[in-house]
Amino acid sequence: KMTVQGATDDQRAKIAALRDALSIEVAAKLEGNGGETLNDTTLRRWLVARKWDVQLATKDLTDHAEWRASFVGPAGRIPDADVQSELEQKKAFLQGVDKGGHPTIIVVGGRHVPPKDVNATKKFIVYCLDAAIRLGEQNSPTWDGKCVGIFDLSAMTLANGDVAALRAVFDLLQNHYVERLHRMILYCAPVIFWGIWKLVSPFVDPVTKEKVIFVYKEDAADKFQHDYEPQVLPADLGGSGEYKCVSLTWRELEARAGGDQVAPSAQ
């Protein structure tokens, strides 16, 4: 059994209370659908996200397990075939990790084609986040469970604007990927993006909003060089690496976990 480093006695008691409050079905649903193992680390993430309210964390984790079972299902992850049209836009990349070990997803906003149904966007976000989490777990046993998202908005136009997609990102982070965001970097956001942000930001939890930073070209070199080794980022972001699409990362992760056998999530 994993103990949580740095937890107070009161927090440990609440972790134990949350464990007792959750049914065996919740644990089975999460583990059976590629979600988390209900260890102390997972329980603590949900308690931190719900301000240590055991009742609320119990309800939300139970809802999350139900969602995971219906939205992702027993394959353990969203299959490539379900997100084919999104993959074909070549807009999302999983590059590796920053110097703190945080898996980093890059989204190129200028390549996003808003779908007719926001469900397609949600599936793709889940597909990317699950890959990032698997990468973090395989990369280091001491990973803090958090990821970075860099949205390169430099080539974004009105045609790429998608309020529903941005809301979906935050809805998923707040309801299903709690305490998973280390930082979100909005790079070179044009005026049109500010209009979208104005519509979405009232729905974003204040703790999450503090993790969102706007970076412009003049600060980019300092920011990215400080956080990343050059080979992790592509040239568009001042690095020396190639773009690496999420589907390729998934194939590598699954090969490493033993062929097609998807390893159960450790966090």
UniProtKB/TrEMBL annotation:
Q: Which domain of life does the protein's organism represent?
A: Eukaryota
State the protein's name: CRAL-TRIO domain-containing protein
Q: Which organism is it from?
A: Chlamydomonas leiostraca
Q: Name one Pfam family in it.
A: CRAL_TRIO
The UniProt entry, under SMART domains, shows: CRAL_TRIO_N, SEC14
Q: Where is the CRAL-TRIO domain?
A: 80-245
**InterPro entries for the chain:** CRAL-TRIO_dom, CRAL-TRIO_dom_sf, CRAL/TRIO_N_dom, CRAL/TRIO_N_dom_sf
Xref: PROSITE patterns: CRAL_TRIO (PS50191)
